[in-house]
Write a structure and sequence with these properties.
By secondary structure, this protein is mainly α. It has four helices and no strands.
Length: 70
């Protein structure tokens, strides 16, 4: 998966999920730090991250299937 492809897939996520993913993976924030900076609870930050991962897995899988079909 190319970095351009990942950027395109991240753009498809809801803003809260995309921001949470970015803070966790790129900025290496803790869930407590994410929650504090986004004005939500730690558990909400964890949920948004989990949903972002699930959505990205699904999008990557779909992209690979399309790439194989072409």
């Amino acid at each position: 998966l190319e970095s351009e492809d990942l950027a395109q897939l991240l753009d498809k996520l809801p803003r809260e999920q995309r921001d949470t993913f970015y803070m966790k993976i790129i900025l290496e924030f803790t869930f407590e730090e994410i929650g504090s900076s986004m004005g939500c609870s730690t558990n909400t930050a964890k949920s948004r991250y989990r949903y972002a991962l699930q959505a990205l897995r699904s999008l990557v899988k779909r992209k690979r299937m399309i790439d194989l079909a072409v």
